[in-house]
Amino acid sequence: MIAPLVLATVAVTDFATARAWYARLFGRAPDHSPGPSCVEWQIARCTRIQVLPRSDLPDRRNRAGGASVGILVDDLDEVLANLQGRHIDVMPQTATHFVRFAPVSDPDGNLVTFVESASG
Which residues does the UniProt record annotate as the domain VOC (predicted)? Predict the structure, then answer.
């Protein structure tokens, strides 16, 4: 299967707080706002991160704090420096022989992990 767009949805308890946190995380206002309680950031040509209040999601997906999103980046050190400048707390970095990665947690505990290939 080839999909024209990948959309990762993150459930949150406090929409206004989460919207502000993700704006700091990505360094800009949302790229799309399909409704009054839905915002999206386009982070790659065919990939969006969508933030919704948990009450807007079907019962089986409405648990805030249960999402985990991985974002591949070319320069993890640059991303981490930018996040620190925007007052986003970064958890300790981890490295394997193949990747370096650094998770950050939104106010609900959803994880956004930035990953850099060890091969550069």
Answer: 4-117
